[in-house]
Amino acid sequence: QQMTAMDDPAHVMDAFLNIKGGADKLAEALRQQPPATDVALLALRHMYAVGRSDAALDSLLSELAGIKGEAPKLTEEQIKAKAEEAVAEGDAARGEAVFRRADLACMRCHAVSKGGGQVGPDLSAVGASSPVDYLVKSVYDPDAQKKEEYVTRILLTVEGQQLTGIIANRTDEQITLKTADGKLIEVPTADIDFEGVGKSLMPEGLVKFMTEQEVLDVVKFLSMLGKPGTPYEIRQTQRMQRWRMLMAAPQKLIDDIPDEELLGDLVLRSPNWQPAYSRVNGELPLDELTARTGQSVVYVQGEVDVTAGGVVRPRLNSVVGISLWVDDLRISLDSEPTLDLAKGRHTVTLRIDTAEREAQTISLELDRVSGTSAQFTVVDGQ
What we know:
- The protein is an alpha+beta fold.
- It has helices spanning 10-17, 22-32, 37-49, 55-65, 76-89, 92-99, 106-109, 126-129, 132-140, 142-145, 212-224, 251-255, 260-268, 286-293; strands spanning 111-112, 115-116, 151-157, 162-170, 174-178, 184-188, 192-200, 242-246, 273-277, 284-285, 297-308, 310-316, 322-326, 329-331, 339-341, 344-353, 361-362, 364-368, 375-378.
- The two termini are 36 Å apart.
């Protein structure tokens, strides 16, 4: 049966990518029965998102998707020129928007301001610690810039399964792989038929999804990360960067603010949460949320770890259109609210009616109230 752009090819891709020689077999099958252009593009995006860039399949899907050929190999002179061009003509704000795009999947592997994937290196300070030409090289040729701890391993099992990831842990009994989407896979040593060295989990061809200007903008954005006195400086406060967003919220959650029972049943215990991350400055763009959910009312959730109980003050950039709960307790936002938090992990849930808000973003910071014994950290990561 021919797939359409409404179908998700991920499960078909994974079925082939996870067996020995599967990528080449899939390439041959698609050569015989080519998919539609949009399906090829979705398949290529998924392939890159899971850290695979198998040559034959990559080349074929790129051709079928109408995407330009292989990323150029830049000379040292071209790298220097590209770096100078990025500094002069790149736009960091536009670059951050490109970096956050779902088709590039950058945040699936990398954290910025401690929010994002945990597979690749945290990029929060990369601009303050790396020359711009290094960043250009990293974008165009990630294999040349990878550090030892991010070198991938390819494991072939005795059952013919192929697994790719970085080594999270190794013992005499098993190897634990961390895949590009952050999953940990434990493989008994006795089941491993072959172990080889792979490429960087960051695919070489990502620049194929970007225009020349977008590449310059991304490099400019990376070059600003961690620089003091800029919107991209290292975060110093307990600001929420890692969120979960509720997908396919039932209509009754859209129509009205839920009571405690509905909140528990349809929100807190829902399995339909997906990651969302704030910009470096802590702002979570509402248009990204509504585009992903298809709904004008969205629910997002963050977490806070309290090591010593006490009083905490939540600071929102605007309370218009916002309802807030800590765990299952609704918090009034009529005046400056405070939260008396016991030791342990707590969820902070926001219902955001975007139609009521003028502000195009939401940000939440937690402050310790003066004189209280509260000690806490927001939960970061993936």
